[in-house]
Write a structure and sequence with these properties.
The protein is of the alpha+beta class. It has 3 helices and 11 strands, in the order E-E-E-H-E-E-E-H-E-H-E-E-E-E.
C-alpha cells in the first residue's frame, strides 16, 4: 500500500522519497515470565527463585517448547529494606528475581501454555511481556519495499511531467528507515485470572522507505 511521499527537485534531477507498508499475520509469540521471591536470608530467597524459574521452564518443555526456544535470564538478589518510625531504614530480608523467555510457535496452544506457566509459580510469578511477531518477515518486508518504490516512482513521474520532462535513469537509491509510529496493541486480552489471556493474532505491519534520484530528460 502506497503512502504520501516528499519530493525534492534539483536542476537535471528529481529526488523522491517513497514509503510503503505490507501486513501479515504473526506466527510466533514471545513470552517472558519472571519470579520474585522474598525470604529472610539470601540462600532462602535464591533457592525459592531458582525453584520457581525451574518450574516455569519445566512447563514450557512439557508443552512442547524446544530447548533452543527457552532462555533463562540472570538471577539477581537484593536487600529488602523498609522504613520504620524511630529506627529508620531497616533490613527485613532479601529479594531474589529472575526470568525465563520462551518462543511459542503454536499460537493455537499459546494461551494455555502461558496460563499454566504463570500458575505453576504461584504468587511469586511476574508476567513480564507478551509479543506477537513474525518469525520471518523477509517476504512481507519485500512487499513493503515494492510499495515504497512505486510511491517514489509515482511522485517523481508527476513532478517530471509538471516540469515538461520525463524520467531518465536512476542515479542513486537509498534505503531509509521510516520514522517509528505508535505500535498497535498486541492481540492479547486478559479474560480472567483462571482463563488466562486469549490470543487474537491480528496482523503485523512492516514499513519501508526509499529515496531515489532520477535524471530529468527534456
Amino acid at each position: 500500500m502506497e503512502r504520501e511521499a516528499h519530493v525534492r527537485a534539483e536542476p537535471g534531477t528529481v529526488t523522491a522519497t517513497g514509503t510503503g507498508w505490507a501486513e501479515a499475520a504473526p506466527d510466533l509469540m514471545l513470552v517472558s515470565v519472571g519470579v520474585e521471591c522474598r525470604a529472610e536470608s539470601v540462600a532462602e530467597a535464591y533457592e525459592a527463585a531458582g525453584q520457581g524459574l525451574a518450574a516455569v521452564a519445566s512447563v514450557l518443555r512439557s508443552r512442547g517448547v524446544a530447548a533452543d526456544d527457552i532462555r533463562s535470564a540472570g538471577l539477581a538478589v537484593r536487600a529488602d529494606l523498609a522504613w520504620r518510625d524511630g529506627e529508620g531504614q531497616r533490613l527485613v530480608g532479601y529479594v531474589a528475581s529472575s526470568s525465563v523467555a520462551g518462543r511459542l510457535r503454536d499460537l493455537g496452544s499459546a494461551s494455555a501454555v502461558v496460563s499454566e506457566a504463570v500458575r505453576t509459580a504461584g504468587d511469586d510469578v511476574r508476567l513480564n511481556s507478551l509479543q506477537l511477531v513474525l518469525s520471518d518477515d523477509s517476504v512481507v518486508r519485500a512487499q513493503a519495499r515494492d510499495a515504497a518504490w512505486k510511491d517514489a516512482l509515482s511522485s517523481a513521474g508527476q513532478y517530471a511531467a509538471l516540469a515538461s520532462a520525463t524520467l531518465g535513469r536512476v542515479l542513486t537509491v537509498t534505503d531509509t528507515r521510516p520514522a517509528p509510529g505508535p505500535l498497535p496493541l498486541a492481540g492479547i486480552q486478559r479474560a480472567s485470572a483462571t482463563e488466562g489471556p486469549s490470543v487474537e493474532p491480528g496482523v503485523n505491519r512492516v514499513e519501508a522507505a526509499v529515496t531515489v534520484t532520477w535524471e530529468l530528460r527534456p
